[in-house]
Amino acid sequence: MQLSVVCVFLFVAAVLKTGESIRCYSCVGLAAISPTACMDPFDATNVSTCDTGSACLKSVAKRGDTVVMTRSCVADISENGCHRNSIGGISSDTCWCKTDLCNGATFQRATSTFLVALIMFAALIARRH
């Protein structure tokens, strides 16, 4: 009897998510096309509820006059922080944080994988212009 109760408890614990989700602003904007969509100041109506354990991200990539801003949910990070990088003429500032709607502030810095993806995205946009 006790073993079946333990098995049911373990099954329920494995199926249910624990922890709390946070909400983050969610948008991508190209300054030249939609300056108020995601750039500072921005239209703060797009809010996403992130998966449990996620963090919020705000990133801006620049190459010449081309500026791309991204706000979104990202996989959990160990602590709040920012990172500045420059590769191939593209500079980027990326910040991540773990409280509700924390990615709405004017710049505060993501994982290196996300940063590389963002730079590649910015380079793709720059090639089209």
Automatic annotation (TrEMBL):
Q: Residue span of the signal peptide, if any?
A: 1-21
The name on file for this protein is Protein quiver
Top-level taxon of the source organism: Eukaryota
Determine if Signal is one of this entry's keywords.
yes
Q: Which SUPFAM superfamilies match?
A: Snake toxin-like
Q: For this UniProt record, give its keywords in alphabetical order, as a comma-separated list.
A: Glycoprotein, Signal
Upper lineage is: Eukaryota, Metazoa, Spiralia, Lophotrochozoa, Annelida
**From which source organism is this entry?**
Ridgeia piscesae
Q: From its record, what is one biological process in GO terms?
A: sleep
